[in-house]
Specification:
It contains two helices and no strands. With 77 residues, it is an all-alpha fold.
């Protein structure tokens, strides 16, 4: 279980890093690439978070205080 939480934390950190890189780059192609990668990692993190929650419920303990809410970004066009 701890291994999954470590992977979840890494996915979240990587997604945040890519989002930051996207905001900092001046190249439109790189910006779009970093945004897509950040979105993909954020989705993977959410999926993994669901697995961790399910396993926590099965094992009888909850780490709901550690869950970071997903914040919606403005629509990108």
């Amino acid at each position: 279980m701890a291994d999954l939480r470590e992977k979840l934390d890494k996915l979240r950190a990587d997604a945040a890093d890519l989002a930051l890189m996207s905001r900092r780059t001046s190249d439109p192609q790189k910006r779009a690439l970093f945004e897509r990668l950040a979105d993909e990692l954020a989705i993977e993190a959410l999926e993994l978070e669901q697995v961790v929650k399910l396993q926590s419920r099965r094992s009888g303990h909850s780490d709901m205080d550690k869950v970071v809410p997903l914040q919606a970004r403005p629509d990108r066009r």
